[in-house]
Amino acid sequence: MLTVAGSDSGGGAGIQADLKTMLALGTHGMSVITAVTAQNSLGVQGAWELPAEAVRAQYRSVVDDIGVQAVKTGMLATAELVETVAGLLAETDAPAVVDPVGVSKHGDALLAASALDSVRTKLLPLATVATPNLDEVTQLTGVRVESEAGMRRAALALLEYGPRWALIKGGHLPGEPVDLLTDGTEEHWLRAPRHDNRHTHGTGCTLASAIAAHLAHGRPVVAAVTAAKEYVTGAIAAGFPLGGGIGPVDHAWALGR
Known about the structure:
This protein has a nine-stranded mixed β-sheet, with helices on both faces. By secondary structure, the chain is of the alpha/beta class. The chain is globular and about 45 Å long. It contains eight helices and nine strands. Helix 3 links the parallel strand 4 and strand 5. Helices cover 37% and strands 19% of the residues. It has a single domain (2-256), classed as 3-Layer(aba) Sandwich (UDP-N-acetylmuramoyl-L-alanine:D-glutamate ligase). The two termini are 23 Å apart.
């Protein structure tokens, strides 16, 4: 498996969360780092994008030699990097999970506004599954979600850009968390209990990586997303304090079962 994303120096999200998830779910993780962040439980103190040529070289290095059975994308930061990664994905015969990371858990911007159109037109058409949260789907489609009906409208608007499946994450709505997975024909509402735990750093990265891991094992999309939802729900329940702010989910929670 390959993650194409930014590095989180605090280890809760980004490349670090992706690799932990991949290991926990029985896959070999490889990485293409797109940006380096100075980040901890309190927020993002700085971010530096890598040159497109460095991203391209990392990708070709591992894919041309080792091969890949699923790709997950996360923080891509700029239009140039979005377009570079989209070009690489177009040449790769593997399912792609696109997590269109726009902001961090703490509200820090991780994608330039000028890159949104590249995400819509270059990256989303290549996605097997796109996994925006409510803020990200509003950024991409203009649809503001305040209810489950709004999630359906947002999903259909996102599918207009070409992903095979849209997974709209509704955890920010009041009540029990619910996500909507749809390809425009089928609808699957994935519900889970809300855990009284503030330590949820890395949830989105973890979910997208878990979906990709199950796709790499050969599961169809609905089964992969359902299993990934179960994994991340357990990781949230086991999230633990680290530092002075929002701690990470526990990627190793299931290893003792």
